# Entry
Amino acid sequence: MDLEKQHYFIRKLHSLSGVLPIGLFLTEHLLVNSLSIRGPEAYNKGVAVLQSIPFLPFVELTLIVIPILFHTLYGLWVVYLAKNNVLAYSYYRNWLFYLQRITAIITLIYVAYHSYHLRIANALFGLEISFNTMTSVLSNPAMLIFYIIGLLASVYHFANGFSTFLITWGVTVGAFSQRVALIISGLLFFSLSFIGIQALFAFI
Ligand code: HEM
# Structure
């Protein structure tokens, strides 16, 4: 395979990985965490079901960790290459494009910290993942703000990315279908943000 074809293939794979499996995982993660709205018992039961999945470390490694590492490393390369020309041409599509890069960096910082202080701390130091643990984390106002910013950035990145994914894969070709996809992205952004923020406030 020559270099250009290789690049084309990796770009398509990067695009796909953002929706499947990472975007699907993000959606599942927000929905399961929204069990906090139903109270501590429902939330802890949901966590227990997830923790009882057979071969969990293997499932997490292949379906979550490796795709996120690949998407992030290639994504950083794309951000590094991008000409952020939003100041020169302030069309809204340029802003969406620019925000896609900014939210990629915020998501990276947020996901790294979030995974470290919960999932990795659970594996290495036996930290219990429960409603009470989340309450003690989120009752710190600085942490709550950090979580809200991380949530909004990752949901924006996924929702806007979904409409550019449809372009990358040649699903939305004309101006009309691209506008419809953008409306669907907007709805996705508002509904996932609403669910996620409600879930965060339910812990405190
Ligand atoms: C919650 C985690 C993430 C999800 C669900 C996600 C999802 C997506 C989706 C669906 C796309 C659109 C693909 C396309 O335009 O064809 C995308 C694009 C992108 N992602 Fe992510 N992503 C995540 C994290 C990250 C991180 C941590 C980085 C790097 C720091 C990153 C960098 C990028 C870049 C640069 C693009 C634009 C690619 C382009 O325009 O060709 N993403 N992402």
Notes: The chain has a mean pLDDT of 94.
